[in-house]
Specification:
By secondary structure, the protein is of the alpha+beta class. It has 2 helices and 4 strands. It has one domain. The longest helix has 17 residues.
């Protein structure tokens, strides 16, 4: 099983990766940027298949990861979640 890591004030790893969890963690990242007055955050990898990190359409996830990130951004911008 792939191991995915998302760094938000330290590292966090999880084994049961899915697009819903990615969306929740993306919202958390947007909120951390707001809380600490940062202009951006960095996702560990765009296309690092060898390391198990990918943020692009795939046979396994389709477009769901990109759509999850897009949804998180819309939720954050529309609601300014605290």
């Amino acid at each position: 099983m792939w191991r995915f890591i998302l760094a938000i004030k330290g590292s966090k790893s999880f084994d049961d990766f899915n697009s819903k969890y990615f969306r929740e963690q993306s919202i958390n990242a947007f909120n951390m940027c707001k809380k600490y007055n940062k202009d951006f955050f960095m996702i560990k990898a765009w296309n690092e298949w060898a390391e198990g990190n990918v943020l692009e359409p795939s046979m396994y996830y389709g477009n769901s990861i990109l759509e999850s990130f897009h949804d998180a951004k819309k939720i954050f911008l529309n609601n300014q979640i605290n």
